[in-house]
Amino acid sequence: MCGIIGYVGSGRASQIITDGLKRLEYRGYDSVGIAVRTGPGRLEVRKDKGMVEEISTALRFTSIDGNLGLGHTRWATHGAVCKENAHPHADCSGNIILAHNGVIENYSKLRDDLASKGHKFASQTDSEVIAHLIEENAKTQPLVKAFIRSIKQLEGSYAIVAMGASDTEERLFMARRNSPLVIGAGKGEMLCASDIPAMLKYTRTFIPLQEGDIAVLSRHGYKIYADDGSEATRKQITVDWDVEMAQKGGYPHFMLKEITDQKHFINESLASDVSGAWKLIDAHERVDIIAAGTSYHAGIMLSYLLQNSGKVAQAFIASDYPFIAKPDKKTLLLAISQSGETADVLQALRFGRGCKKIAITNVVGSTITTLADCVVFLNAGPEVGVAATKTFTAQLAVIYKMFYGKDKLKELSGLIETMLAHDGEIKAIAQKIAGKENAFFIARGRNVPIAYEGSLKFKEVTYIHSEAYPGGELKHGTLSLITEGVPVVALAPKDETLPKLFGNIREAKARGAFILSITDDDEVKKESDISISLPPGMDPILYPFALIVPLQLLAYHTSVLRGINPDRPRNLAKSVTVE
Ligand code: G6P
């Protein structure tokens, strides 16, 4: 959700920034812009609403000369989607230019104050106010001081990258609070961006900023100032992701690549160290699990496994947690977040002040890692498709490792490969359901979180209305929607849930539903209109892993058949950094 990239060095800033903007696309956006310092006192700004490819070509982004610049992909919060509201934004004189992610809560007051001092605004955004604020403060002090002073006057969340046309040197000014921003340190060049993959082509060395940090970058290095204005040192990290991992590698979409990648990454996820997390869980009376979207479904699975082992545990939708829960010192907070940047999750973690915290995340250096006492990494490599796929399976893998140990899970990679081999069959099934308006997913017990996730995947990339239920709930309302030809996807492995789920399949069938089952049971296959087979004799604890893969493929193929780009479904963002 919104993306920033900045560059200072000896390279062609416009090229590097345009390339970075393409890599930030997956976060979700509606407008795009670039600013490059073309010489002392001169800045060139080009921006408009639309997609990176289209706008950067039409406005010839890469034709701008210069070694210092910044770019932005905007996701509208304050003000309509239009050219004026697209970033970068400038002050009155066009000297200060900046891009901002987040929401400035006191912007209206700041805007009124600045307007009374004669500032004229060109957009309706909260972000533009920051440029004018810096301009105002720079009237009486040097730019670094003016920038620091301005940041102190802001309330709300922000990742800001700014520069000055008439600055004495080529520098980028950065600040972050509750919105991600990372420095990338290259040789004779420095970058900054909202996430690591946007900079991978240029460096593997990164310095994630902490909350409240301010930084100044020049081509020779960087200086970081902590919240209290003192100079600070921050941990440098090296990542072993390479550019290839964040590219499509011959697949038509990231989503398909990432579904297929699961067979490899699962072993990396299983190598993750879960011992510290387990010790903390063991030492607490109660575990509150906090997550959003797909990660919430992994959280439900974790809550089931914990409850089954005798713990008091509950999975909460992160955005609702502060309204519902009363965590105390006996409560362990366990947050699951692929990106480690979801604002709802971070807020819920902060709400549990005084509690010990575990984070399960995929992103090294993400904000969540700074809030937790113990971090479990997914090691799933960068996930670019908006719909989480491989990271969900990775979340399940690290969760299952806590309960069953790695040995019990060593067949996982092979199992995923076996399920991926159903791809052709699933594509044919997608053809049968691509024209439907509704779909229902049913399961029982531990298979329910998989039904939730299968349904979420399906609706988010196909735009077909879809719901998931524990099979027993169908008769309490939803059955009224099951009519002739409505697809009902039944997760029906031969485990203890099957006898009862079979009853639910028959109920739906009797109302004319089109039954698609994923099963290893011959009776269920007979009752179904179409089935995807689970491998005979497989270990029942691995059923959730075998079930999720065909559901991901079903969502993917149905999406493509409906002419949708599954990597970028409408209205959705990969990383949701506002509450
Ligand atoms: C967004 C994404 C979802 C994701 C959710 C939580 O809505 O589109 O795919 O599941 O955020 O993200 P997280 O990074 O916290 O797991």
Explain what you see.
By secondary structure, the protein is an alpha/beta fold. The protein has 2 domains: about 5-245, Aminohydrolase, N-terminal nucleophile (Ntn) domain (Glutamine Phosphoribosylpyrophosphate, subunit 1, domain 1); about 410-579, 3-Layer(aba) Sandwich (Rossmann fold), CATH 3.40.50. About 35% of the residues lie in helices and about 25% in strands. The protein has 18 helices and 25 strands. The radius of gyration is 25 Å and the shape is globular. The mean pLDDT is about 95. The site of 6-O-phosphono-alpha-D-glucopyranose has 17 residues, from helix 8.
- Poorly predicted regions are none
* DSSP E strands, number: 25
Structural class: alpha/beta
Please tell me what the overall shape is. Answer: globular
- The end-to-end distance, rounded to whole angstroms, is 12 Å
Share of helical residues: 25-40%
Rg value = 25 Å
Question: Which strand order do you get reading across the main beta sheet?
Answer: 3-2-4-1-10-9-11-15
Attached small molecules: 6-O-phosphono-alpha-D-glucopyranose
The percent range for strand residues is: 15-25%
Short description:
This protein is 34% helix and 24% strand.
Helix-strand layout with pairing:
Blueprint: E1 3-8, H1 13-24, E2 31-39, E3 42-49, H2 52-58, E4 68-74, E5 89-90, E6 96-104, H3 107-116, H4 127-137, H5 143-152, E7 156-164, E8 172-177, E9 182-185, E10 190-193, E11 205-208, E12 214-218, E13 221-225, E14 231-232, E15 237-238, H6 254-270, H7 275-282, E16 286-291, H8 293-308, E17 312-317, H9 321-324, E18 331-337, H10 343-351, E19 356-361, H11 367-371, E20 374-377, H12 390-404, H13 412-420, H14 423-433, E21 438-443, H15 448-462, E22 465-470, E23 487-492, H16 498-510, E24 514-519, H17 522-527, E25 530-533, H18 543-561
Parallel strand pairs: 16-17, 16-18, 18-19, 19-20, 21-22, 21-23, 23-24, 24-25
Antiparallel strand pairs: 1-4, 1-10, 2-3, 2-4, 5-6, 6-7, 7-8, 8-12, 9-10, 9-11, 11-15, 12-13, 13-14
The structure holds 6-O-phosphono-alpha-D-glucopyranose (G6P).
